[in-house]
Design a protein that fits this description.
There is one protein chain. This protein folds into two domains: 266 residues, ANL, N-terminal domain (Rossmann fold); 99 residues, 2-Layer Sandwich (GMP Synthetase, Chain A, domain 3), CATH 3.30.300. It is of the alpha/beta class. α1 crosses α2, α4 packs across α5 and α8 packs across α10. The chain has 14 helices and 26 strands. β20 and β21 form a beta hairpin. The longest helix has 19 residues.
Length: 482
């Protein structure tokens, strides 16, 4: 901002440019205002659509020595207000007129004379991200400056950005993917293009946005990238400016991933893995379009990963299988005000505290990790243990399948009955023919006990606000399609 104040920091939805110099002035003045409004303590909620003003609100909160809590502005009022109260927010930066249970300050906030800002400690809270809990009650994941710095410094080395890069900020701000786009991007002096919601969820509009803005870097969830492959003209038109695509948040099926890589053969593509409690802890850069499940790769710098077996045995190297547990500066210190949940998710190994991801992986002899699925994604059916992710992977290899999710329904005789919910690549006059083909496909590739008892064909799968499959809604969909 001081060396190149006229360089473009943001381009908003309408194409308006905001310079680094203006960014610094707004952030500094807003930080001073936040200090005055809050008395220098507490959390500040960001309840606003993705915009330069919202991002500047986040940066100003950090500069003021406070922690921010990004909240989906489309969230139901009950969920939004629960988060505001649970996080103890003392103020909300808003872009709208909704009545909130805390004091509000509109964005963009009016400038104020600069004031001396505090020095922030490395273990001070930077932000808290809320994720759905197993009980349906949102839980806050506390991220410190140490946690965020560990990820940002690694990412800047592993996937560096340049001042001439045009970075698409695709994911919503209450997700963890934009941490890379915002902090690595701004530190590099790149230009950030904030993808509006009306564009992010419409593949052809997204492709037009990427092309017109000459976007060189895109970080998104596989669901969004799969839609870009299947429901836009990407495979015909390409995206000439794209030099790097990163994905995370869920598994990317080999077929659409391969199609994506063939559509943009000049782009580097990498799979990043890690839960919200740690951000990225492994990465794998693909050498060529895949024909089988893609590994999650090797641990990133500073992340100490071991595999914890069912018998409690710990494996740090060599071929092994078990739950991924991780220690290091990347690990969140706690769930906000949830000591019970924090305690259950941690384990002491060799005098060091590890976070239990709940993900099961296999490490091959070369030290590469392959994700097998969730610990809670392992179900029993017909007396056998089945990993739902493995069934999804096989169903997803059929060329007529665009998206798939597999769930288990309790059954008194079989323990669990498997259901596959699929979205076809194109409409079919007779879904029963597609179902017959998929059943034959599964029977040719899976043991009988792993073949889904029912296959349900839908026009689309429900999605969360972060673009991932909303698995909690699948049981009701299965019931509705019977």
């Amino acid at each position: 901002a001081r060396r190149h104040p006229d360089a473009t920091a943001f381009v908003d939805a309408g194409g308006e440019r905001i310079s680094y110099g203006e960014l610094e002035r707004v952030v500094s003045s807003l930080a001073a205002k936040l200090r005055a409004e809050t008395g220098g303590g507490g959390r500040v909620a960001i309840v606003a659509p993705k915009s330069p003003a919202a991002v500047m609100g986040m940066l100003a909160t950090l500069a003021a020595g406070l922690a921010y809590v990004p909240i989906d502005p489309r969230a139901l009022p009950e969920r939004r207000d629960f988060i505001l109260r649970d996080a103890g927010c003392v103020l909300a930066l808003v872009d709208g007129a909704d009545e909130l249970p805390v004091p509000t300050l509109g964005l963009p906030a009016a400038a104020r004379e600069e004031a001396e800002l505090p020095t922030v400690g490395i273990d001070d809270e930077a932000y808290t991200l809320y994720t759905s809990g197993s009980t349906g009650v949102p839980k806050g994941v506390v991220i410190t400056h140490r946690n965020a710095s560990a990820f940002v410094h690694w990412a800047a080395r592993a996937f560096p950005l340049r001042p001439d890069d045009q970075v698409a900020v695709h994911a919503p701000l209450h997700f963890d993917l934009p941490v890379y786009d915002l902090y690595v991007g701004l530190a590099a002096g790149a230009t950030l293009h904030l993808v509006p919601e009306r564009v992010a969820f419409f593949p052809q509009a997204l492709l037009r946005f990427l092309t017109e803005r000459k976007v060189s870097h895109l970080y998104a969830v596989p669901s969004a990238l799969t839609a870009l492959v299947n429901r836009s003209t990407l495979t015909e038109d390409g995206a000439p400016a794209l030099r790097r695509i990163l994905y995370a948040g869920e598994e990317f099926r080999p077929e659409p991933l391969a199609a994506l890589m063939r559509a943009v053969p000049h782009a580097t593509v990498a799979n990043l893995y890690g839960p919200i409690e740690t951000n990225v802890i492994t990465s794998h850069t693909l050498d060529e379009p895949p024909s089988e499940r893609v590994p999650i790769g090797r641990p990133v710098d500073g992340a100490h990963l071991v595999l914890l077996g069912d018998d409690g045995a710990v494996s740090e190297s060599g071929a092994a299988e078990g739950e991924i547990v991780v220690a290091g500066d990347c690990v969140s210190p706690c769930y906000l005000d949830r000591r019970d949940l924090t305690a259950r998710s941690r384990i002491e190994l060799g005098g060091r505290r590890f976070y239990r991801t709940g993900d099961i992986a296999r490490r091959d002899e070369d030290g590469v990790l392959h994700l097998l699925g969730r610990r809670d994604g392992l179900v029993k059916t017909r007396g056998y243990r089945v990993e739902l992710g493995e069934v999804e992977a096989i169903v997803g290899t059929h060329p007529d399948v665009a998206e798939v999710a597999v769930l288990a329904e309790p059954d008194p005789e079989l323990t669990n009955r498997l259901h596959a919910v699929v979205v076809p690549t194109q409409e079919h006059d007779d879904d029963s023919e597609l179902v017959d083909r998929l059943v034959r496909h599964c029977r040719d590739r899976l043991p009988g006990y792993m073949v889904p008892s029912r296959i349900h064909v839908l026009a689309s799968l429900p999605k969360t606000s972060t673009g991932k499959i909303a698995r909690a809604e699948l049981p009701d969909l299965v019931l509705a399609t019977r």
